[in-house]
Write a structure and sequence with these properties.
UPF0473; alpha+beta; 5 strands; DUF1292 domain-containing protein; globular
């Protein structure tokens, strides 16, 4: 598989074993670790003007997405993506 890129779509299985398609909205390297911001494709396609729920993933081995669920790491990654968006 190739390196994770903006626009890639993956199937994510949540804690209830429900499958959801997510689309990569952005990628960034923070302190030597690659991260991706992603949202549910259905929410992105609707374009209702509502905010889209964004999830952050750590990219391992250029292709494996590991959800960021530790509070400290989530805050660091979220802040970095917000800062980059505002720049």
């Amino acid at each position: 598989m190739e390196k994770v890129q903006v626009g890639d779509v993956f199937t994510f299985v949540d804690e209830n074993d429900q499958q959801q398609d997510i689309e990569v909205l952005g990628t960034m390297t923070i302190e030597g670790t690659d991260y991706a911001a992603a949202g549910f494709t259905g929410d992105i396609e609707e374009e209702t003007g509502d905010e889209v729920d964004v999830f952050f993933f750590r990219i391992e081995n250029d292709e494996q997405l590991i959800i960021v669920d530790e509070d400290d790491e989530f805050e660091k990654v979220s802040a970095a993506f917000i800062e980059a968006e505002e720049a």
